[in-house]
Design goal:
It is a single chain. This protein is an all-alpha fold. It is built from 3 helices and no strands. The N and C termini lie far apart (84 Å). The relative contact order is 0.11.
């Protein structure tokens, strides 16, 4: 009889985290990159546009250690910091 009362209960369905949610760096694998980024922010009055290289390095570290989903850096806003393809480097005078 007690099973008849459980028809209305909802079951838990796990789902992936929302974009932008990622695990904490519990083991400090990217701590050095984070510290460089934070130092750059402090030195530049928290103007993150002046710390884009440090931000890119930090995000690359997080992706390398599976602390966030791998995304193309161009999609994360770092297209201008990417190395040009080898064919373009050769054509430069």
């Amino acid at each position: 009889m007690s099973t008849a009362m459980n028809f209305g209960t909802k079951s838990f369905k796990p789902r992936a985290p929302d974009k932008g949610s990622f695990p904490l760096d519990h083991f400090g694998e990217c701590k050095a990159f984070k510290e460089k980024f934070m130092q750059c922010l402090r030195e530049n009055s928290f103007d993150n546009s002046k710390c884009r290289l440090q931000s890119k390095d930090y995000l690359e570290c997080r992706m390398d250690h599976q602390l966030m989903a791998r995304e193309p850096l161009q999609k994360l806003g770092f297209k201008d910091l990417m190395d040009p393809p080898p064919s373009q480097e050769e054509s430069k005078p």
